[in-house]
Amino acid sequence: MSSEKFENLEDDFSTSIDRLRPVIEGITNQTGEQRKNAVRQAEKKVEEANFIMQEMENEAKIAPTQYRTQMLGRLRTYRKNLDQLNKDLKRKTEVGFYQAENYGFDRDERLEASQRNRLVQGTQSLNRASESIARSHQIAAETDQLHDTDDNLGKSRKILKTMAMRVMTNKMILIVVILLELGILGLIVYFRFIRK
Description:
The chain is mainly α. It has helices spanning about 5-25, 30-60, 65-100, 100-105, 105-195.
């Protein structure tokens, strides 16, 4: 990989995900204030993972072309994992909403959690759009490189044709000069030896 920062962010992301999974899984086993705290903690860890993911995307955008594709592929995998964990969190949180009286959630807390979920979903949508734009920029840059290469090939063809024409012209001139020399040599031999 070309970017040490990208690799460090990957490690941070993996650590963040590893800490998030048990928190999400433990939500269903908790009630009341513990459950609310676990949900908040999980949402905070999702936001942290999203922030790290955004930093990784920024690093991938400025990476050299030969590494960028590999980085973006890994980011897509990480994005799927984070989206899946976010869906699990949302599902377990919604179960809590349906059983709000049992778990101590009041209306304001449900609205706040719902707004957080929408915010996280909006952030994820923006991240996916940013990733798509980065891919489009990459494709445009590669297309420009191909266009430049094509232009260079066209110039090279013109230069080669010009060189080939000059070589042919030089050969024709050499043939004419050789024929003239042979003619002159023939005349000299004729007048000097044969005509005597």
